Every structure is written in C-alpha cells, then in structure tokens.
Amino acid sequence: MTQPSPPAGQPTMKERIENELATVIAAEQQGPAVLISAGVHGDEYEPMVAAVELAAILPGMLTHGQVTVVPVVNPDAYGWGSRQGSDGLDLARICPGNHIGSASEAYAARISSMIEQADYYVDMHTGGLTYEIHPLAGYMLHPDEGILDIQRQMARCFDVPLIWGTDYRPQGRTLSVARDAKVPAVYLEFGGGTGFRRQVVDTYVAGVINLLRYLGMIEGEVSRSPEPYWLEDHRPDSGYLQGKMPSPAEGILMAGVALGETVSAGQYFGRIFDPVSGVSHSVSADVAGIVFLKRAIVKVKSGDALGGILPITQKGKHTIYE
Questions:
Q1: Measured between alpha carbons, how far is 14 from 35 in angstroms, rounded to an integer?
Q2: 42 touches 88 (CB < 8 A)
Q3: pTM assigned to the model
C-alpha cells in the first residue's frame, strides 16, 4: 500500500508527526521521569487527544521531575487509521523493534528506548475500531513484588471501575519492555468503535494528573476512586483480548449484553446470524462476571473474539492463580 503524496514542498503526515513525536516538560526541581504514550495503534484516537492536552497543560503544573508525552507512537498506523502500520505489523506485538527495520519496527524501537529511560510509564489505549472496552487500568503481574505494588498504586490513581493485573510473560508489548527494564508501568483501556468520546479524554487527563500528584510531581491532594472491581489473573495469556469468546461462525453479531453488565455463566450473550444461509448461532457467556469487552464491528468471522468477561462479581481485589 502507498500513502497519497502531499502537495509539492509540504512534509508528509509521517514527517510532520515524526517532527513532533514527543514533548518533554521539565520542572525546575528534580524528580521522577515519567513517560506517557498514546497512538501505539493508529485507530485509537481519544488517547492521542488526551496526550496533546496533557502536553499543553503540564508546563504550568509540573513542580518536580520530567514528563515526556508521545501522542502518536506509530505515525504510520495513524496515517492509515488502522491498528497496524502499512507494513502489516502491530507495534504492540513487535517491541523492542528494530531501528533499521520497517516503519512499525522502527517506531517500536524508538518507544522502547524511551521506556527504558523512564522511571514510570503510562500507555493509553482504546478498543480501536474493532472493540469497545469498559474503563479499566491494567498492568502486568511483575515478578518483582516491589514493582508490582507500585503498579497497583499507579492503577488506583485512575478513576475507573475496573483494575486488571494479567500474566507477565507475553513478549513484544510496550509493557514487556517496561517489565524487562524494571520500570513500573500501567496501561489504560476505555471506549472504542466509531465516533469520538470526550469522556475518555477527560478520564485519561484527570487520571494522569492524579498519578503525577501521587508521584510528588504536581501539587495537590491525591484522590482515590471508590473501591473498584479488581482482578489479578495469573493464568497464561490472561490479558490477550483477541482470544476472548471466539465466534462459532461467520455472520452478523447481535449482542445481547451491555458493557459493565454482570452476567452469569451460560447467560445469553448474543447471536451470530448469517443472512446468506439464514443460519443463526446463539452465544452464551463463558463465565460469570462483568462484561468488559464487546466487539464493535458487527460482521465477524469464525474465531473472532466476540467479547470478554472478567470472572468476578463483587468489588474488591480478587486473585486467580494458574
């Protein structure tokens, strides 16, 4: 695929974004170095806006340390409005990348280097065009208990109803780079599908500011959200969204549940209808818990993830071991 060329003498979209890849805000007094990123996937727009707004307001707020904000980690994927770049690669699966590789590999290498130099890291996401996600803050279940506890405290700084700790072993992620560099890191998920949701931007901006207060970098009292639904799931690939509730057939998804709804195991989740054959397949919830993930693109193929359920039904911290 070839991107359309801009008028003669004007920089390409990739060049424009590369020139503004990161904003560094430094306070006069020493403190931690925090990295905030968005746009790992090119179809996740609200985090990009949140990052730009943070870069604009933090210079007047930061009292200690340094914050680096990267609004669009993969400009190539953003140019295509896609999860993947023009090379067909998902940056969130190829870290630490390759500085002399393809576009996504080079951008993966660049953000990986920045993560390794940070003291704390926040990676902001949505469900992209494919999924809708109930607001959550997540982290890898780091084998270092000290780092893990810091990540728990970081996640609590965000006013979201779900906190999710998942298997630490997956490779290729921004958070796996942070894990290996022993950098405490969290990721945020909220929204997705088509349209723009201001609430996502506001939630992320407020949460980052609250985190910086917790780290002693901004003045003000740290706020804590009401007790969330909190799951630490140690099972292999527990955080792999694309593997949740695979569709039994190709067709049109007619969901029968809402994000944030509590369901019981075996409850009706929706159905897949094929208008060509007229065949319909009913889909049931695979476990009891909270619906946190729903497919936003209604046309599905066999094996596509239809949604996800966190297997907890009460607020407070819960743990699932292997």
A1: 21
A2: no
A3: 0.92
Helix (H) or strand (E) holding 280: strand 280-284
Q: Are strands 307-310 and 289-295 parallel, antiparallel or unpaired?
A: antiparallel
At residue 21 the predicted structure's pLDDT band, cuts being 50, 70 and 90, is confident
Residue 307: DSSP 8-state: E
- Give the span between the Cα atoms of 82 and 185, in whole angstroms: 25
CATH assignment of the domain containing 302: 2.40.50.100
Q: Where are the alpha helices (DSSP H) in the chain?
A: 13-19, 45-57, 75-80, 103-116, 145-156, 174-181, 198-214
Question: 256 in the Ramachandran plot: left (φ > 0), alpha (ψ -120 to 50) or beta?
Answer: alpha
Q: Determine the Cα–Cα distance for residues 99 and 77; give it in Å rounded to an integer.
A: 17
Structure token digits, residue 1: 């695929």
Q: Do residue 147 and residue 285 come from a single domain?
A: no
Q: Label residue 189 exposed, middle or buried (CB < 10 Å: 0-12, 13-18, 19+).
A: buried
3-state helix, strand, coil in the chain (%, to 5): 25, 30, 45
The rounded distance, in Å, linking the Cα atoms of 128 and 74 is: 14
HSE-up of residue 127 (Cα within 13 Å, Cβ side): 28
| Total domains present in the chain | 2
Residues 161 and 258 in one domain: no
Please give the average per-residue pLDDT across 106-122, as a whole number.
97
Q: Is the pLDDT of residue 98 over 50?
A: yes
Dihedrals phi, psi of 259, to nearest 5 degrees: -60, 140
How many residues in total does the chain contain?
Answer: 322
For residue 294, give its domain range: 245-310
From residue 272, alpha-carbon distances to 131, 161, 276, 280 in Å are 16, 29, 12, 6
Q: Where are the alpha helices (DSSP H) in 58-136?
A: 75-80, 103-116
Strands (E), 146-267: 162-166, 185-192, 229-233, 251-255, 262-263
Integer angstrom CA distances of residue 284 from 33, 39, 245, 290, 319: 46, 33, 9, 14, 24
